[in-house]
């Protein structure tokens, strides 16, 4: 088990180093000079040079990369060119919206997908199974932003149960804040729940055909008990993989939903920073999201070891 964890930790560190280099190089080759954008087309050359020196843009690329990475290791993400605010504070403020939204969406995804997938697998070939698979196929096909706009029309404009956009803020109380995140969370969760339910059904059906399940049935267990006691745990590895990928998507890929509902999250911050050519903010936010994705994958691999004893024994 220790060797398994150390191997995964080494893979995590190497992935982070490779990701930081790739992000820095991609951002650096983008056209446009942040200093020129900030000062406008009529900026004087000496003023432009002074601003570039102040922003550190006159330093060699390697020096800037090392300074950026070294700052992040100490919790210093630099200062935003556009907002003139520490990037760490910007990220903290926006993460207070994006992270609860991702967790809320993931919770809805699991709560919906697990019962639906198990129900469909237990009734393979029935009318209920066919209906569930048809609905989940529709959920996979519908874009979440289009579904989000439909919910705004129905629940915000017509029924007036929720606001059409914006975030109440955690200082207003837990319930108003969660109410602001409900429609975005549902819009993000339903397509992901459709995917997860289909994966759960397929994994359970594959496991139910294994010899150990047939042996349990031969000993007198009903199909439902064999599914709950033996098949479900062994079917969790592909399901855990999808859950890890979905959390990463919900945290990093909610930019469209955040713009539909005007949520001040990380997605909108990236969009606004790219438009303003705020390189340091874009680099830091993207690196944070990449770190979250890699960390989630690492935790999922540790969960594999808890589910599958063969990994703990090194087999």
Automatic annotation (TrEMBL):
GO molecular function: dipeptide transmembrane transporter activity
Transmembrane regions: 9-30, 101-122, 134-157, 177-197, 235-257, 285-307
Keywords of this entry: Cell membrane, Membrane, Transmembrane, Transmembrane helix, Transport
Presence of keyword RNA-binding: no
Localization of this protein: Cell membrane
CDD domains: TM_PBP2
Pfam family for this entry, one: BPD_transp_1
Keyword check for Transport: yes
Annotated Gene Ontology cellular component terms: plasma membrane
Residues forming coiled coils: none
InterPro entries: BPD_transp_1_N (IPR045621), MetI-like (IPR000515), MetI-like_sf (IPR035906)
Recorded topology in the membrane: Multi-pass membrane protein
Residues of the ABC transmembrane type-1 domain: 95-300
UniProt-listed PANTHER family: DIPEPTIDE TRANSPORT SYSTEM PERMEASE PROTEIN DPPB-RELATED
Assigned protein family: Belongs to the binding-protein-dependent transport system permease family.
The name this protein goes by in its record: ABC transporter permease subunit
Lineage: Bacteria, Pseudomonadati, Pseudomonadota, Alphaproteobacteria, Rhodobacterales
């Amino acid at each position: 088990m220790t060797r398994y964890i150390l191997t995964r930790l080494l893979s995590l560190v190497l992935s982070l180093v490779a990701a930081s280099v790739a992000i820095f190089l991609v951002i650096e080759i983008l056209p446009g000079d942040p200093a020129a954008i900030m000062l406008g087309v009529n900026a004087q050359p000496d003023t432009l040079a002074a601003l570039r020196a102040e922003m550190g843009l006159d330093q060699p690329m390697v020096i800037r990369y090392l300074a950026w990475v070294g700052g992040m290791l100490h919790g210093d993400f630099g200062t935003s060119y556009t907002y003139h605010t520490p990037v760490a504070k910007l990220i903290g403020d926006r993460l207070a919206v994006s992270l609860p939204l991702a967790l809320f969406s993931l919770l809805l995804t699991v709560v919906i997908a697990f019962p639906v997938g198990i129900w469909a697998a237990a009734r393979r070939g029935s009318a209920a199974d066919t209906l569930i698979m048809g609905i989940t196929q529709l959920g996979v096909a519908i874009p979440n932003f289009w579904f989000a706009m439909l919910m705004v029309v129905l629940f915000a404009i017509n029924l007036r149960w929720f606001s059409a956009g914006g975030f109440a803020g955690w200082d207003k109380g837990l319930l108003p804040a969660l109410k602001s995140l409900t429609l975005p969370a549902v819009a993000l969760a339903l397509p992901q729940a459709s995917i997860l339910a289909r994966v759960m059904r397929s994994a359970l059906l594959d496991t139910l055909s294994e010899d150990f399940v047939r042996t349990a049935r031969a000993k007198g267990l009903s199909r439902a008990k064999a599914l709950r006691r033996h098949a479900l745990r062994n079917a969790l590895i592909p399901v855990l993989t999808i859950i890890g990928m979905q959390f990463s998507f919900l945290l990093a890929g909610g930019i469209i939903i955040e713009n539909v509902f005007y949520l001040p999250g990380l997605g909108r911050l990236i969009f606004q920073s790219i438009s303003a050519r705020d390189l340091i903010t874009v680099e830091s936010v993207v690196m944070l999201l990449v770190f979250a994705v890699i960390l989630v994958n690492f935790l999922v691999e540790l969960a594999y070891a808890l589910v599958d004893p063969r990994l703990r024994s090194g087999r």
